[in-house]
């Protein structure tokens, strides 16, 4: 007998009656506010082409590295989930078998954010009323497949149904931006904009770094054989992104280390990393220098700078060799900010045009470093809990550790940071509920007035993201 699937209307709200009642009231006022999605990883080609999504497995399982890592941890091969290995022929499983395998292991996600997001999608997007498990796998696959064939489930229709006001994608520096060009020329009212992600041309450890530098020169017409031409090429790419609506750049180095070398030394360092013989120390110093150079460019062109350090990318070397990037093998590591950011802040931290949004995977840095930094430097803002901490408990830990020092207005609201398009409303729903719960607790304990909590609820759900990302 299938077990019923329902969403608790009071999910994630406080247990204490007064705080719960107030949280309900606050949430009711903001639940339907438009969604600002200033940082994510959805494919702009979905919206440019507006083609139907094909099936449940390719839409909900295969792009989602949260799911891949959990299933892999329990012995499910990525091939069985339809992930193609690099090189050589292979016989991909059919989508229904991938979905069945996922359904058989859905219990692995109990009490995780992924379970909350997916159940929200199943109920609110597809109207499913029984839980996903092995016995209901085919029912789910068929119901989702039937829905996806309807015009109301095409990407643009879902964008409008979800109440999205603006959606930013994340695009490599060498991306041809064809989908964004098509969207710019289209009369559709949806706003989908790029975000400049230059890691493939600023990180010497990228496997294609030398070839990427050559390509950067080709597409910009600049001479990337030398330091001045390399900087000019990066500035040109930023201008192209801005012309297509970008308001932000994003950087994902291993650490937050910055440097401000004399330009002659920087030119020599560039020559060393460009030649492919750089030591690990030189590679790290080059990444550090490039963060400061990118901050200088942000002062010039106004792009908001986002810093997402602290992930050991592709920690599983064998998995990376077989399947490539973004397959769930990225692991958080210790990250420091006070010493690391000082060269950048000394160079441009006083500029009123710089806006630098800081993220972390190291929660020990919240109260010790990040909140005091953002509570002092006008250029700095704190991004929301990110990646491994984008969860109910992670959001509570974040608010408890940063609010007393940084306040609310040195934060930037919420961003969903997802490849899973259908989960965007679910993720914003969780964030809005948790923020209302936190505000209600502050009122219940005499630290905030009710009218202030109501104003803050709107700001956290909507206003701060628009302001921080210059949208």
Task: Provide an overview of this structure.
50% of the residues lie in helices and 7% in strands. The strands form four sheets. The chain has a four-stranded parallel beta sheet, with helices on one face. Helix 13 (263-274) packs across helix 14 (280-301). The protein has two domains: 17-51 and 163-468, TIM Barrel (Alpha-Beta Barrel), CATH 3.20.20.140; 52-153, uronate isomerase, domain 2, chain A (Orthogonal Bundle), CATH 1.10.2020. The protein has helices at 17-30, 44-49, 56-61, 65-73, 95-104, 113-124, 137-148, 155-161, 178-185, 199-202, 209-220, 227-243, 263-274, 280-301, 317-323, 338-348, 365-374, 392-406, 424-444, 450-468; strands at residues 35-37, 164-168, 171-172, 192-193, 196-197, 248-251, 304-307, 311-312, 331-332, 356-358, 380-382. Helix 17 links the parallel strand 10 (356-358) and strand 11 (380-382). It is an alpha/beta fold and 471 residues long.
